[in-house]
Amino acid sequence: MIDELNHVVNVLSPATNVFGGAVPTKVINMKQWGSACFIVQCGVGAVGTATITVEACSDATPTLTTAIPFLFQECVTGDTYGPITQAPATGFTTAAASNKVYKVFVREQSLALTGYSYVRLKSTEVIVGAIAGSVVAILSKGRFINEVPSTVLV
């Protein structure tokens, strides 16, 4: 089945002011997965911006975190994406626009350098303005493919 190739995880539920303040997603256990793509969906909210970072985590709590570099792609018009861009560990700041989507790619190598196997996305509000949105993660390159994958939220 095609669905066995990926595991979709709701890591930040839809909300009216989803990125207000400093907001981390749920922590994902990547031990059985080779890569993750966080889909950051923003609806209404043309003013607010946030800095997006990715943190490698020592465990599910997380007890320790380390910001890591990642790749991202931005879409602020329909389904027209810009180029895939390398973001430093300090992240990038989102555009002030409604109806935008970001794909945030986390590679296994970035996690391996930290020695951690857990990851989360974190947004920190830069310009205050309520943004409706959510974040899902699509995990791929599974080490053991099952029709019903094991949970990665522990």
UniProtKB/TrEMBL annotation:
Q: Which organism is it from?
A: Desulfosporosinus lacus DSM 15449
Per the record, the domain of life is Bacteria
Name by which UniProt lists this protein: BclA C-terminal domain-containing protein
